[in-house]
Amino acid sequence: MVRGFAILLLCLLLGELIVRFCGISLPGNVAGMVLLLFALRLGLVQLGQVKEAANLLLSNLALLFVPAGVGVMVYLDIIQTSWLPILASLVLSTFAVLLVTGKVAQRLKPKSGESCDD
After folding, report:
1. By three-state DSSP, how is residue 45 classified?
2. Burial class of residue 7 (count of CB atoms within 10 Å of its CB; 0-12, 13-18, 19+)
3. For the segment 4-21, what is each residue's pLDDT rounded down to a tens digit?
4. pTM of the predicted protein model
5. Which terminus, N or C, of the chain has the lesser number of Cβ atoms within 10 Å?
């Protein structure tokens, strides 16, 4: 499991470094996940090497939301005064993500005569 955590942390570190040095406007952890995806797809990392560490993190995922909850409590006065624009942006962005995800899924879906079992 230590090796799995080391691989996950290395991907996170590389993602952060790439974002900082290249000036990309993307969170470093997202870039790290993309690097991990490429490493898994290319066979540089085997799923078994990171599966146990990833499952441990996922089983304790609720703990990782505590800092975000604290942040909401700290800025509660700002949220109370600006609740309508915040709510509108949440609703609109949710629908935008659903729309884009649906369109991408339609484009990636095999044609009716093709099988996706291959």
Report:
1. coil
2. buried
3. 999 999 999 999 999 999
4. 0.62
5. C
